[in-house]
């Protein structure tokens, strides 16, 4: 399947930041990245087993998480993070494919 260039670039950078955060902070044992192609959206899911964190607290301080959120907003969606201390983290971005403004221009 073909992904619009603007969406592709932002999803790549979100994934890159997710991997970087996992390697630097999570003390994780397993990292999984999935990209699901649905009829009208793509679902990017980054999950890892690791120490987890308080999402509200980290969103205030983490440049990387703020950047991921901004990239999600640029493609017309939001960043959804679920993290439990001691239980790992799941990050999801549901990118709409039916919006012309998502062409990255």
TrEMBL record:
Keyword vocabulary terms for this entry: Cell membrane, Kinase, Membrane, Transferase, Transmembrane, Transmembrane helix, Two-component regulatory system
Occurrences of domain Histidine kinase/HSP90-like ATPase (ranges): 7-98
Entries under InterPro entries matching the protein: HATPase_C_sf (IPR036890), HATPase_dom (IPR003594), Sensor_HK_TwoCompSys (IPR050482)
GO BP, one annotated term: phosphorelay signal transduction system
Molecular-function GO terms, alphabetical: kinase activity
Membrane topology per record: Multi-pass membrane protein
Family annotation (Pfam families): HATPase_c
Main location: membrane
Highest taxon listed in the record's lineage: Bacteria
Cell compartments where the protein resides: Cell membrane
UniProt KW Transferase keyword: yes
CC terms in the record's Gene Ontology section: plasma membrane
Name listed for the protein in its UniProt record: Two-component sensor histidine kinase
Record organism: Staphylococcus nepalensis
Organism ancestry: Bacteria, Bacillati, Bacillota, Bacilli, Bacillales
């Amino acid at each position: 399947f073909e992904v619009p260039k603007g969406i592709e670039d932002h999803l790549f950078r979100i994934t890159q930041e997710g991997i970087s955060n996992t390697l630097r902070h999570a003390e994780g044992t397993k990292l999984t990245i999935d990209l699901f192609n649905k009829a009208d959206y793509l679902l990017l899911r980054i999950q890892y087993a690791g120490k987890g964190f308080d999402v509200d607290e980290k969103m205030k301080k983490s440049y990387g998480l703020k950047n991921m959120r901004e990239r999600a907003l640029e493609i017309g969606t939001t960043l959804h993070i679920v993290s439990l201390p001691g239980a790992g983290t799941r990050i999801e971005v549901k990118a709409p494919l039916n919006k012309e403004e998502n062409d990255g221009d």
